[in-house]
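Entry 14. Ran structure prediction on the chain below.
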Amino acid sequence: MRPYTSSVSNERSTDSSPVAATPVDPETGLGSDDVNRIQRHSLGVLFVSSILGRAAMSVSFVVSALIMQEILGSATWAGASTAALTVGTALSASALASYMSRRGRRPGLVLGYVAAAVGGAVALWGAHRLAVVPFLIGLVLIGVGQGGTNLARYAAADLAKPSKRSKAISYVVFASTVGAVTGPALAGVAGDVGQRVGFDELVGPFGFAVVFFAVGGLVVWLGLRPDPLVVAGGLRERNDESPVDRPGQRNELVAGIRVALSVPAARLAVAGLMVSQAVMVMVMAMTPLHMEEHGHGVGAVGWILSTHTAGMYAFAPIAGWVSDRYGRVPAIVVGAGLLIVATVLTALAGEAPALLMFPGLYLLGLGWSFGMVASSALLTESVPADKQVSAQGAADLLSSFASGAGALGSGLVFTMAGFHILSSVGIVASGMLLAAAFVRNRTPPVVVAPT
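Output, structure tokens:
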């Protein structure tokens, strides 16, 4: 690693004035004031871009399953739309993490936004033509963008102090609140705009998504300077690698998975990411179909999903505070408990009554928030510093695969057994995570030696 250096800090170190010099961080070569300033600036840029990226994802997600059902004429494989998104996320997670480890967070995030904007355009064309292949290809590309934007939470932690790591991660997660809540609410407006220009009501939201993704990428490209990973000295130098370490992304992926699964605390973090994401996605993916089946319109579906996404993002700072104050593992316990309560409520919502669907989907999002924030922080601090980026990419890859499997299977379970059985699967998975976190919480922690 090569730490970022600043002429500002160098000038301070040689200043002979009586004013006390700002303490210099030995890892970054910067004064603490400089690091704090860069961190605040980075969080601001990530905040704005996350709003735009999440709005794009949310407005397109509301109609994706409905479009699949219209194209195929059945709800059996409607979950394939969510599966396509998660497959794209899975395929890109490790690749973008590897790219970031060499080039920085900024180029990797911008690449994800560009892929998502292109994917939105392709999905729009496929939905308009009722062509399943281009529609799914477009969703996969949007998923690639999601894989990049998901890594933004780790960018928030690059320069964060250990005692504030969860808070920094939760800040970026919280930033998605505005986009995640307004995205589904904009589905109706986007549909009207789409109809005015000659598209179907369900196609319009993808036009909005393309614009949001493009602007989000522009914000990162222009604003994320200097790059937080570069400042932290987190770039891997090719000249420092041995020939054995150079073959490429595949070896880095294997190494990332190995290091993420070799430390007990990191294993729990990976499990927390996988279960939180899979349970949330599989229940949420079938919610529009479940509600439509019982007579609810697109507007009602949009508001239910807005409530759900509010639970996912609006209270992320609370999840971060709990994780920093009481520990990462206890926060995972809370998240698993919330997921259990949520899936119990949705299992009881046989005819999709608002009295159960609103709190059920809200708590589903809140449980995901606790699990995602605490697990991300636990993973980051449980592995050696020089392996963090590859471990983060590998963990997101595994959680995306789990999410994709849950999304793809959710349509089958929903069609053959019903929404209550689908929710019961979530109860079991969340219960297993709760048990694992509870046992881990009673086990003495293993401290990773610094590298």
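Residues 32-72 form the longest helix (41 residues). Will compare against last week's run tomorrow.
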